[in-house]
Amino acid sequence: MNDLGLKIRNIRASKGFSQEYVANELGIKQAAYSKIESGKSDLTINRLYEVAELLQVSVYDLMENVHSVSDVKTNPVLVKSAYEVSITIKLNDPAKEAELLKMVGLK
Length: 107
What we know:
Blueprint: H1 3-14, H2 19-26, H3 30-38, H4 45-55, H5 59-63, E1 77-80, E2 83-86, H6 94-103
Antiparallel strand pairs: 1-2
């Protein structure tokens, strides 16, 4: 399990949400959602935003202090809290891209 998946799992559990509930809300199967939490599946930035919204946290909250994020897809390298994080982003929304780049200090 990677840091991001573990963080998502812990927040989901703290809200009392089951994996099945979150998967249904995201419009995916529970098995696919389980792969997000276990780090066995790529997580697009759009899906990251959907998960954050569903869990009622910001994307920043999900990514804060995450030591490695190999499951989110983009080219920029984020250096945060003395940790280097490489992210690959698949975006369909330029506003989200601009927000994320601003958040990580690249714009």
